[in-house]
Design brief:
234 residues, 6 strands, six-stranded mixed beta sheet, alpha/beta, Uracil-DNA Glycosylase, subunit E, 8 helices
Length: 234
């Protein structure tokens, strides 16, 4: 736990990507009317959840007026509303909503993080920005010693998670596993003398673009987390 805490401190002080630093601070200085007067976090975000989690949930990046405002990943936006409600239904969270860092939310068996730790303009980090941030995900996954399952929310998170596991010693299959909702891949990392088997599960990102159009439904999300729980316990 202390190592994750140390990593969190390092993440929150990061300034590796000038474009993202400028954007996260501009969003805080020029919020939409509904958030005017609120104090924004406006720093990079570490992961959140159970340090003994068997399931690591990986997203793209914080939302400009969600996590960048509240200071917790997937908190204060519609995507987070869907995600944490699903984790509650799956028995992985103690409450179905996440509105702020002090709202009492606790995760059990799950840890939520992202490939990038600052909100990118138009939700599109550059390859360089992804690679600047990727070492944080590598270290997080390494420190989550009980994790065996990665749920990747969207194709960007799928690719980032594959790259992170490769940095932990996994040999990626050829051809590289392709993202899809419900797609699965089996990998094994080699961390020093320790070998760890991982299962990756793909899930459409719970963005408004997907949930409003019905591309992602609550039953689809529930099926993913039921599968993830089964893989983690097996």
């Amino acid at each position: 736990m202390s190592s994750l805490a140390s990593l969190a401190e390092e993440i929150t002080s990061c300034t590796r990507c000038p474009r993202l630093v400028e954007w996260r601070e501009r969003c805080a200085a020029e919020p939409p009317r509904r958030y005017q007067g609120q104090e924004y976090w406006a720093r990079p975000l570490p992961g959140f959840g159970d340090p003994r989690a068997g399931i690591a949930i990986v997203g793209l990046a914080p939302a400009a007026h969600g996590g960048n405002r509240t200071g917790r990943i997937f908190t204060g936006d519609r995507s987070g509303d869907w995600l944490y409600a699903a984790l509650f239904r799956a028995g992985l969270a103690n409450q179905p909503e996440s509105v702020g860092r002090d709202d009492g939310l606790r995760l059990r068996g799950a840890y939520v993080t992202a490939v990038n730790r600052c909100p990118p303009p138009q939700n599109r980090p550059t390859t360089e920005e992804r690679d600047n941030c990727l070492p944080y995900l590598v270290r997080e996954l390494g420190l989550l010693r009980s994790a065996r399952v990665v749920v990747a929310l969207g194709s960007y998170a799928w690719t980032g998670s594959l790259l992170a596991l490769a940095e932990l010693g996994a040999e990626l299959p050829r051809p590289r596993p392709r993202f899809g909702h419900g797609a699965e891949a089996q990998l094994q990392t080699v961390e020093g003398r320790r070998r760890r088997k991982w299962a990756m599960v793909g899930c459409f990102h719970p963005s408004q673009q997907n949930t409003f159009t019905g591309r992602l439904t609550e039953p689809m999300l529930d099926e993913v987390f039921a599968r993830a729980r089964g893989l983690a316990s097996g």
